[in-house]
Amino acid sequence: MPDDAVFLALAHPVRRRLLQILAEGPRIAGDLAEQFDLSRPAVAEHLQILRRAALVRDEQVGRQRRYHLTAEPLAEVEDWLHPFEHFWRARLRSFADIAEENT
């Protein structure tokens, strides 16, 4: 089962968005901060939480920090969620059926 820190990190929409951005490739901290209507220290705090959960890693590049997605904890979440997938599929199928009837 994934560490609780991973679930806590994923619970916040800013951190989920940071992971989506980093899935496209490594980014400098300043570039990440520009993606949000938040202060740089606030974004840095979110990155720190992601780092503590091992969802991102950082490297020093000159005077800047470059962040990289670390996908292993996300794979653990996927493995943990897999047994529950049949609940989602059934609900999505029901939703699709209702939507089709109303069109």
TrEMBL record:
Q: What CDD domains does UniProt report for this protein, alphabetically?
A: HTH_ARSR
Gene3D superfamilies cross-referenced by the UniProt entry = Winged helix-like DNA-binding domain superfamily/Winged helix DNA-binding domain
Q: Which domain of life is it from?
A: Bacteria
HTH arsR-type domain residues are 1-89
The family database entries (Pfam families) matched by this protein are listed as: HTH_20 (PF12840)
- Listed GO molecular functions? DNA-binding transcription factor activity
* The name this protein goes by in its record: Transcriptional regulator, ArsR family
Q: Which organism is it from?
A: Blastococcus mobilis
